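Write out the 3D structure for:
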Amino acid sequence: MDVATVIGLILAWGALFVSLGMEGGSLADLFNLPALVLVVVGTIGATTIGSSMKTLTSISSIIKTAFVSNNLNQTEVIDLMVGFAKIARREGVLALEEAASKINNRFLQKGIELVVDGTPSVMVREILETEIVAMQDRHKMGESLFTTLGGFSPTLGIIGTVMGLISMLAKLNEPGKMGHAIAAAFVATLYGVAFANLIYLPIAGKLKSKTSDEVLAYEMIIEGVMSIQSGDNPRIVETRMMAYLPPALRMQRERSKVEHVREKMAA
């Protein structure tokens, strides 16, 4: 579970409801079934027009991606590839196939398999980089879907408000009902803007962020695979992969290594 996504949604919607209570309002004031149907179903319908059935049928997996943590930790990737480099130096490249089969990451497994099969280094890099491009295209589909939802939602909210105001103007001979009618009309705009800015667009941003993190991890794996194929020692493999880490993570990793050495010497 991606805790940041859950916490963000709770904070965003919590702020909305808390501010409503501070202003003396109630949840009943925000409930308008016709407006809800128009904004939610209308937004989905408008998005469907410009999307393919393939995209729509994969929406559940897209949402799951936003709420599931990325299992490719950068430092763990480095440790993993350094471990593979040690195995390759000690037992040979062929021993990597069995070690890689125990890792639950198809991209890394493919890279190791290509090395074990004796594929030329240029072709290994080309194949793996093509995998990254294909992955980005798949993820872009989900990001684009939620960005489109975020674009249509406020517009459908405005349409709902206009419809409500038209209905209100048709009842000018009943002044006592005008206040409630105006308030109900503007609830549609609230729905549209809230869903766009508190659900659709944040999820689109989360998907984009996850894609960037995954691309970085895959690029690190490519660097490690190429280094292992070149026969570099584990220290060189680690150094080449650490170039992808931000300075803070590099320093943290170096400190942890120093502390580990001290603990071993003390023991």
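The CA atoms of residues 162 and 265 lie 75 Å apart.
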